[in-house]
Every structure is written in C-alpha cells, then in structure tokens.
Amino acid sequence: MKYYEVTFTLTPYSTDACDILAALAGEVGFETFMETETGLTGYVQQALFDESALQEALKDFPFESVSIDYDVREAEDKDWNEQWEQEGFEPIEIQRREVRGERGEICPAIVIHDGRHLPESLSEDTIAIEIDAKLAFGTGTHETTRMVCAELISLLAPHSSLPERVLDCGTGTGILAIAALKLGASEAVGYDIDEWSVDNARHNAVINQMDDRFTSLLGDASILQEIEGSFDLVMANINRNILLADMPLMHQKMAPGARLILSGFYTADIPMLTEKATSLGMTLIAQQEDNDWACLVFQN
Fold it and tell me: Which stretches does DSSP call E strand in the chain?
C-alpha cells in the first residue's frame, strides 16, 4: 500500500497535545505515528487520505493556545508494519490496587508484554497478556488503557460476580477484551472501524489462547444492531466525540445492572460524558484520573 507521510508541528509542543492530535488524526484514517521533537509524523494510506476531514478534525483541538502546522509528502515505499513490529515495547505492569474479592483475597495484577520483551518474572497471582501490536492502538503504554485494565481488575475480582458477556467498542489490539477474558469473563465481542485492528485483535486472541471465546468484528457502532443479545460489561476507550455519539447504541446492548467503562478523554470532558450517561439512566459509580486523562464507570 502507498502511504502519505504527514509531519505535524505543534507550537508550543507538549506530550498531552501530541496524544490528542494522534487521537483526532486516527479518526480520519491515520494508522500509526512516530514522535518527533516538535510533534508527530503520521502515516495514512493515500487512497484513504482526506485532507478536508483532517482539517475539520483539527478544528476540535481542545488546546486553544497550541497551533498545528503540517506538511504532506509521499512516504518512502517500505513495510511500515514490519518496522513497527521490530521496535516493540517494554513490559508494562498494571499496578495492583487495594481491591479485594468477596473472600478477602487481593485482586491480581496484569503484565502486558510483546514477544520480544518478556517480563523477568511473574508471581502466581499475576496475569500475563502478550500483545503483538500490528499498527493497532492498545499496548498498555497509554494512561487510558492502563486505567481501564485497573477497573477490570476491580470489577472482575476473583469470586466476585463475573460478567458473562463483555463488549469492547473500538477494540484496537483486543487488549481489553483479552484482559477481561483472562480475569474470568466467559465471552467477549469487539469491533473496530480499522481492518488492521480487527485482524490484529484476532491474532492476539490466538496468542493468548482466548480465540475460542473472542469475536472481533469490522464496523462502527452501527454494527451493534446486528449483534444478538445483551452484555454484562461494555468498554470503550475512544475519544469524547465518538463516545457521546455512540453511547445510546452502547446502552441499548447493556443488560440490567450492566456496567460501562469509558476512557480515552480528558478530565475536562467528565461533566458532559456524565450528563450523557445520566440522561440514558446510568449512574456514575467510579472515576479515575491520570495525567489529565480520565476513566469513568457507570452502572445501568
């Protein structure tokens, strides 16, 4: 596939601004990014590049003091997926929270790693998840992924009331669905608008021996109308605007008493997301914050 290489320059530069830029560009077709000293370099298939859509997405940039310039050129013709795979990432531990199961036991920790960087040692109560990230979001390096995993540890504690079915909206690498299954959920369904992500999620389910209980589908939230039955737990690590638009469809698939874990947005977005969930009849039961990123848990 032929790609465009788009160099984004942020003035002033900040890692938070880069995170938001990557999320917005990802919505309009960009597949992967590399950090630079002044911003990001993003890659998008030439056949999918829509500059007007990119400009429209950048209008929603929440940091008014940050200006964004970009330059578009044809990318060198090489295997970007192979380069991404070669880099990999160091093991990431989702720190144990002071959460205990109904019998008083401490909930397990989660260690996320790739096939090239293995954890040095694992305790008996640590759950290992191997992720082979093929241009898909979700390795555990981002605050939002870590917070959702921490909430899963709490909700799926040993001997607690395990959800039978889990829905992962915008599944990416499939990491959240796989984590839920390893923590005790019986079945998981994920969907994503990116074909790379759907295939990668299936691949990671096989690596973790969870493919018999995990289904990865290609599509946006409208695909929920084609999925039979309801879910006991719904997760969505997506940006604010998509969450606001898709939350009604997510809510329709929630069983009575089901829980909804949302992340992918900033603390400033908490009021509007809480208002939307409340209007649908849900109640806020938990909240986390990490470097201005937020995670909310609602109950139906």
Answer: 3-11, 32-35, 39-45, 67-74, 92-94, 109-113, 126-130, 165-169, 187-192, 214-218, 231-237, 254-266, 283-290, 293-299
